[in-house]
Fold:
Amino acid sequence: MSETQPAVPDAVFYLGADQGVCDGLRSVLAPRGIELRGFRTIAGMMLAAATCPARVVVIDPRALPPERTPECVAERLSQVVDSCPDLLCLATAQESAEQIRDRYPSVADVFAPPYDWAHLGERIVALLQRGQAPRWRILIVDTDAAEGAMIAACLEQAGMEAQTVEEAAAVVPALERFVPDLL
Structure:
């Protein structure tokens, strides 16, 4: 029987030098169990991506060297982790959200100051949940079919994948077939 590992917590990268932005993002992501990792350089972010990839990267365009674009950052990240993260850009007082959208059409969204942290947090969560498989696989053993179904429904509503068996003889085959994280 193969063993599965629970998923690592979601990580979001922030590329920029503004500690206020880093603190604001962390204030809305941490309560949701999402780790924010801040980087001042692309090189530092690439090193971290090798061990803890991010599916969403928030970029302050002022942190990019003149020859780099958010698309270049995403392309370099995808070479390290075999997947392309979603990009969010932060507009600045010097450059409007519309100007950034026109210049970088592949970014998922652009946010203008003053930043609405709650809205930005919701957008990040939506991007993380898009196409995401359930985190935990739970095998429920219950001789009462209705009670097992109710427990499974509650777990599935919480974002887990659940399967129910009613007979003891069905447990081992279900373990081998379903490979749950929890029994």
